[in-house]
From TrEMBL, chain A:
Protein name: Sarcosine oxidase subunit delta
InterPro entries in alphabetical order: SoxD (IPR006279), SoxD_sf (IPR038561)
Source species: Mesorhizobium album
Family matches, as Gene3D superfamilies: Folate-binding superfamily
TrEMBL record, chain B:
Main location: cytoplasm
EC category: oxidoreductase
UniProt keyword annotations, A-Z: Cytoplasm, FAD, Flavoprotein, FMN, Nucleotide-binding, Oxidoreductase
Superkingdom of origin: Bacteria
Ranges for domain Rhodanese: 37-80
Gene3D superfamilies tied to this protein: D-Amino Acid Oxidase, subunit A, domain 2, FAD/NAD(P)-binding domain
Protein name: Sarcosine oxidase subunit beta
Subcellular location, record wording: Cytoplasm
Pfam families cross-referenced by the UniProt entry: DAO (PF01266)
Record-listed E.C. numbers: 1.5.3.24
Reported cofactor(s): FAD; FMN
Catalytic activity: sarcosine + O2 + H2O = formaldehyde + glycine + H2O2; sarcosine + (6S)-5,6,7,8-tetrahydrofolate + O2 = (6R)-5,10-methylene-5,6,7,8-tetrahydrofolate + glycine + H2O2
Family the entry assigns: Belongs to the SoxB family.
Amino acid sequence: MQLFPCPFCGPREESEFHYGGEAGNLRPDGTDVTAERWAGYLHMRDNPKGPTREIWMHLTCGEFFAMSRDSVSHKVSGSSALGETEHGA
Amino acid sequence: MTRHYSALSLLREGIAGQTGWEKAWRSPDPKASYDAIIIGGGGHGLATAYYLAKNHGVTNVALLEKGWIGGGNTGRNTTVVRSNYFYPESAAIYGLAHSLYKTLSKDLNYNVMFSARGILTLAHSEAGMETAARSVNAIQVNGIDCELFSVEDVRRVVPIYNFGPDARYPVYGGTWQPSGGTARHDAVAWGYARAASRLGVDIIQNCEITDFIIENGRCRGVVTSRGAIRAERTGMAVAGHSSVLAAKAGFRLPINSYALQACVSEPVKPILDTVVISPDTGVYVSQSDKGELVIGGALDRIPSYGQRGNLPVLEGVIAGMLEMFPIFGQLKMMRQWAGIVDVVPDSSPIIGESPLPGLFLNCGWGTGGFKAIPAGGTLLAHLLATGRHHDISRPFDLDRFARGRLIDEAAGSGIAH
């Protein structure tokens, strides 16, 4: 069982966490957003092989946070509370 | 040299000391240019090469594989073939694959050991039975063979199932596709490779794509670890690594890559002669011709390119398998592994020209690519040969995500993916 670091609770077992998506995928704003832009936000992903920054939820405390991880080795390099780059200003 | 596989050639080679067999496929050096390039030497890529040569007469083709053929998901799946899908578009594509599987051994002169042993998807509640009935109706309307099973039917087909009074997931019935079954996964890759090579396709292994050659906004070939190779049309069938190649070509795909695990037990005498899927335990089991129980389950819910898999899902799969078949509690597990699958929001494949003209896609099969190999090959070959969609592949174009015309099979398939 791998341990993930919740920035609020500390290291916990991976099964306590839920993947929430790639960090920085911001919802488009305004009334003139094209179908392609919506499809990009809703469906298109970088899906990187190697270093990645993602949004996760710690199910037991209910908090969202950002985690930096390697998608090949699964090594976690850090986690932090959500900042402006993850959910917009 | 002996080329054709038959009882007679077996006998002849037996007498001759097995010295006359021709190599199953050639291993030529890559040429500087071809009529078409196929990236990915798994089942879908190899089938594409074969149908390009056989159906369209395009034989000046290179198939490029970064490792060895059949070493990715084609060698890592649980070999199930079925076509019991909910939507007509899906029934058409998986039905095409299923019908080609039935005669594949003969077509390829290679025994892929397709065995129509039937597939049982269980229902564990009254609500589950209602969903099963709806599913059976839809599948029958699609022209696919499928029956609604009662508890008695399930007991007849799988007498060793856990029908005990204290079963955590009691059986209420299920759906049954009698023509579904299994095929030998490696043989599918090797059979297509041998047949494609015979027709003139160059199969080039240990040849990794490092970049695309892009001129005037069009894909004109690839740069590889063995030099540049040019072609007017390039197709890619690389499953879980589709996003990695797409990034090199300058676009994104609606794909998340996840590890999908499977494991096999030690070989035992025949005890399970069908494929059993339990959506509630999230586990499915069949027995290989070698006698091993082949066990698969749900995805690891952590995006991953590591072909290993994590422990919590494996633990859940084994627990579910023991709940379904307590008799398997004495078995020793022999091997566990994972493949990297390309999961799409609507659980349906992506086939069509990519945002980079001249580059064509066959990806997004998620957890169910093996069963679709003959169709994926037929349809990508059609695109590469004609530049246009086959009627069956048109609904699966990448443009469906911007148009909102998704084909959401998550509910229609036996297991969530």
